[in-house]
Amino acid sequence: MKVYLVGGAVRDELLSIEVLEKDWVVVGSTEEGLIEEGYKKIGRDFPVFLHPETKEEYALARKERKSGTGHKGFEFVFDPSVSLEEDLLRRDLTINAIAKDENGNLIDPYGGIEDIKNRKLKKVSSAFSEDPLRVLRVARFAAKLNHLDFFIEEETLSEMKMISRSGEIKTLSKERVWMETQKALATQSPQEYFRILEKSEALKELSEDLNPNYRSLQNASSNIDDQAIRWAALVSGNTNLVEINTAFNAPNEFSEIAIICDHFINFNEDELNAENLLNLILQTDLLRKPDRFFKAYRASNFVCKSEWLDEGQWKIVHDLIVKVKVDEDEKVGKIIAKKLHQDRLISLENFLKNL
User: Fold this and answer.
1) d(Cα 234, Cα 212) in Å, to the nearest integer?
2) Among 16, 238, 278, 301, which residue has the fewest nearby CB atoms (within 10 Å)?
């Protein structure tokens, strides 16, 4: 049995990027053999095991064959005779198909080291086109490595377009689409992910509604790490936000912040008065969810700088409204609602007079 460090850990090590997680491949063993060694099986579709001490993931070397449509339409072979080179051959990009043995020797059968030197994202083999998820993965790597001037090789980009035109992008589960998208949002250049999806014709397969706001996303990603704020900046200005959020399977937090951000962007500053301000506060649920509100406000400022209330003033508004109470003897149905509304308006009118 031989064990090799593979994939992103080797790539990032060669690029002097912090290695966040390590993946290992085991050649010449079986499920039973690893279990006897104390490894714990966690993979359902194919044998992946946790190391008994480090808890890092170890997978048996495998070959794969296309047997259906989509990302999961494959049959796998885990025979102990499967070589390291055969396992690396099934990987997406040459830079991800480099292995390192226990002595630190690099095994690079497909030219990944040279492609790292040349800053090239290049497919390993013609089997690249069999998995539609690879279009999203390559776009994500383009975003992750954009600051290092990586580019996609023309033939690889052509195959990405071919996959998009085949309709197989639509077979990807929404969960997997969001997983890749959220990872891309966490990179230094998330706008590059969406640019590549658009360039490879995959974006329209994922959502016909999204018109990416690249400028705002780049502005946000240059200043803040929060992925929900970045997402809100990206989708800002689009009219079909519900459809876009659904198409990408964006979590509720991301969807809600994007929609509230839209409220800020569309607010008419010329009509700033207590009534409109209170309506905005109630529509965006500032009182119950202030953290969400302020994330949306920050996102809106990466789209267009607010000239009416800054964040400090919004915090004053929040505190003023929270302090508005009603007397105990007034707590009867509609009476309390009307009195509370009136008192809040008075508080906001006084605030606006002093701006």
Assistant:
1) 6
2) 16
Average pLDDT over residues 274-283: 92
What Rg do the C-alpha atoms of the chain give, in angstroms?
Answer: 26
Closest CA to 301 of 196, 219, 235: 219
Long-range contacts for 101-110 (Cβ within 8 Å, ≥24 apart)? 101/2, 101/4, 102/3, 106/10, 107/4, 109/85
CB atoms within 10 A of CB 290: 16
Which two tokens mark 185? 């949002």
Q: Residue 61: what residue type?
A: A
In the chain, % of residues over pLDDT 90: 75
Is residue 210 classed exposed, middle or buried when 0-12, 13-18 and 19+ CB atoms within 10 A define those classes? buried
Q: Which residues contact 130 (CB under 8 A, 6 or more apart)?
A: 66, 74
pLDDT for residue 217 is more than 80: yes
Kindly report the average pLDDT of the chain as a whole number.
Answer: 92
Domains annotated on the chain, with CATH: 1-118 (3.30.460.10), 119-206 (1.10.110.30), 211-355 (no CATH)
